[in-house]
Amino acid sequence: MNIERINAAAIRLSGKARRTPLLSSPFLDEVAGKRILIKAECLQHTGSFKFRGAWSALSAMHPAMRARGVIAFSSGNHAQGIALAASRHGTTSVIIMPSDAPELKVNNTKALGAEVVLYDRATEDRDEIGERLAAERNLTLVKPFDEPEVIAGQGSTGLEIAAQAANIGVTSAQVLVPCGGGGLTSGIALALAAKAPALKVHPVEPAGFDDVARSLKSGRRETNAATTGSICDAIITPTAGQLTFPHMKRLCGAGIVVSDDDCLRAMADAFTRLKIVLEPGGAAALAAALYHSNSLESDTIICVASGGNVDADVFRDALQKYGK
Amino acid sequence: MNIERINAAAIRLSGKARRTPLLSSPFLDEVAGKRILIKAECLQHTGSFKFRGAWSALSAMHPAMRARGVIAFSSGNHAQGIALAASRHGTTSVIIMPSDAPELKVNNTKALGAEVVLYDRATEDRDEIGERLAAERNLTLVKPFDEPEVIAGQGSTGLEIAAQAANIGVTSAQVLVPCGGGGLTSGIALALAAKAPALKVHPVEPAGFDDVARSLKSGRRETNAATTGSICDAIITPTAGQLTFPHMKRLCGAGIVVSDDDCLRAMADAFTRLKIVLEPGGAAALAAALYHSNSLESDTIICVASGGNVDADVFRDALQKYGK
Prior knowledge:
Two copies of one chain form a homodimer.
Chain A: H1 3-13, E1 22-23, H2 26-32, E2 35-40, H3 50-60, H4 63-67, E3 70-73, H5 77-88, E4 93-98, H6 103-111, E5 115-119, H7 126-137, E6 140-141, H8 148-167, E7 173-178, H9 183-195, E8 199-206, H10 211-218, H11 244-251, E9 256-258, H12 260-274, H13 284-291, E10 300-305, H14 312-322
Parallel strand pairs in A: 2-10, 3-4, 3-6, 4-5, 7-8, 7-10, 8-9
Antiparallel strand pairs in A: 1-2
């Protein structure tokens, strides 16, 4: 993986993915005591950054292979990205989703044209199911993060951050990224290392699912003890990718851990101050910037707000608890 | 008022106001049976388009006059726009607000540095209060809509719509704009008449506060019977402006009327499908496009989502009623 591959993905994504805005609010700067900039990937097609990697992978695929259809496994955001990218490429998709995925994500994935297969997150191995179905139906598996063209697509977010930061005179900052398997985190880290090396990436994870923070400390891929138990459904991946971890190890600063409650509070603050809708996992980086800013040295923090696919009742709870 | 004045305002606003994105969702297209594009002005500084007009007016003012301070009357969005534009110009502002304005709007206006004076919407005349305070303290009154530089600033939204529509190949459409006093509606209509004449503007108002729709029919400025009684606090202005109405009469198509419930439903759909936060009045145009599309001839509808400054409990109600 190198910057040329990310640049090539960005060219394929041009006019297909949205160039999402970099938002800010004086009220959030005041909460953090720092300048806070928010890359609003919740405004991306399908409501999360995942559309970038999905489009990148499908657009890079050999047309004959793509025409036979693709398969993916995902808690929901990669699912929607693949479903839309497949239908816009005129092909079919099968998506393997955990049975406890938010209803909105399951319904949207179906509505975007995919066939959905549910599995039990606690007792079944999604990799095994995915590989078996792919073989049976001659489908091409598009992994959610451990796949070079997916990492390259997510890296296009980093190219935009570099350009948008430079445009407002920000040359040095910490960049916080909600981290599951590490596709977005490693993609952004690779892009920034090439384009804006003084923008330093830190992964952000929910408490109890901080495998990447622990892996960055130990130097080898650690695994989470639990597979369920956080509202941050998008980023509770058991362990970092084989491909993504070496990039993170080489390029990222220390991981940051936030609580589920921090994420609910950040969702409410994003509602009040930015007028954007974030899902719990998508709010993790903003939560770290707002409520854990003591641990951050930079005067400027760029947070990736990675997704907004949240059920209405979870959002209502966040507003009831922390809304103004 | 002419296009040169709007162009000049847009130059002063460059780098100060956000160029807000034009969003879309295949799910909303399906609801309406048409292509729906949403100009997300809720993502503007202070959470509504009003920052454009406020910045335009303050930046056009003689520096000595501006330094003495400004005064404005507003249900909340113009208030916040003026408060931020004033503090960023290094001057002071006094804002006269109705006592029933959403708490969030009152608090934000204060936090952005303004002095807030409350009045009773049913029994007091805000124009009279504004003019008296301006005279007593030697402040310059910036009216919320009936002021050329404010109309020119709001018109910059129309310049962006023209460019963004052209960029995706949209050359003909109906453009729906939530309408109170008509500053945004007339500004956009003037900009589009010059830059994209096949984009036709229609004002959208809440039922019972449809003075502009009736005025466009009768040919003269009509007034609403009531002054309170809609959740669309931003757009229940008693009558259109003396300056704004002639532009609307010359350039706009028929007005469209929506219910408060339509607006709550559009807020929930914008939450689910676009990941943006809209206030009731800010959702009026989207409501017209989604639930009254039978009355619209064009295949493509551009809706201005004019603001997102809504209290958390109103938003929770919208999600409880219509959320998915």
